[in-house]
Structure formats: structure tokens, C-alpha cells
Predict the 3D structure of the following.
Amino acid sequence: MTRGIPSRPGARRGRRTAALSATALAALAALAGAAPAQAFELEGPHWATPQRTIDTTDVPAGPFHDALDAAAGEYTSLTHASVSTADATGSPWAAQVVDQGDDGYEGYSTWRYDGQRITYSAAMHLNTHYLDDSLPTARLKVVWEHETGHVLGLAHVPGIDHVMYYRASDAYDDGVTGLTDDEVAGIDSIY
């Protein structure tokens, strides 16, 4: 018999399991007390400064315009970005409401950036094939917030409980009515 090994088969394993269980419990307790992971992804390009004006010349008055104003206001009040709207032809960031037809996109954004991934112009569009001014302004706001998030530097996330879910109207249908803590943290990590 070798010294240090228990004479009963499995006795040592029982003690080891108990030690691992205590270790596992300690690890779980540490995880439970840790801050939750942030559910945001970054797009890559972003503006050099957080102060931006969206040209609303091509956004009709009424619900589309009101929703864009509300979306910009929410980014300004909740994040380090300062987003305003104005009929400002020539602004490097423009918004449009267009009929793109049945292309599968209720909204989309495009941007141009330099070799340092600094955005120098952008446009975002809502597609009237899927969205119209009879929809609740709150729904249109969530879609504008989604497109604004892209232009500011956020990418899609898999959770339907976020503005940056790949289809903003589905997030709205699931109860999302504005920026979540994750979108705010994502923008604040950029600016």
C-alpha cells in the first residue's frame, strides 16, 4: 500500500469532488457578483467628434420628422454624443425617407470614412415600402435610433431586446421603446 492513498476505493475521489464543488461554488458566486457583460458591438468607423447635426431636408414633416427629432434627443440626453436635427443642406450627415421597394430593409445607413476609420459623411434612410406615417411615432423613433446607432458606430446585436437588433421594428414589437443601457454604453465607449 502506498502512503497517502485512502484504503477505500473512491474515498479520495469523494474528497476531491467536494473540493471541486466548493471551488465551483466560489467561482459561481464571483460571477454572480460581477457586472453583466455589455451587449453592444462596434461597427468600426465613427465620427471624430461627438457633436453631429443630421440634415432633415429630405424628411417630411409629421411622424417621420418627429420620430427623428425624438431619436436624436434621446442620444443627446443619454449618451456622450450630441445629435441635433436641422434643415442643413450640406451637413455631412443626412436623413431621408424614400421608397426603396421590397428590398427587405425597413431602414439602412451608408457612410464614408478615411484610412483611420473616421467617418466624414453618412446617410440614413427609412423605407416607406415597410414604414409609413400611420405607424406610431414611437416605432419610427426606434428605427431612427437603430440607423443613428449605425452612423455613430454601433453594429447589430443578436438580442431582440435591443435597439441594435438587426430588425428594429421586431425589437419594438418585443417591447423596446428606446435606447437600452447597452446602446448607451456602446456610444459612450466610442465618444
About this structure: The first helix runs from residue 11 to 33. Residues 1-34 form one domain.
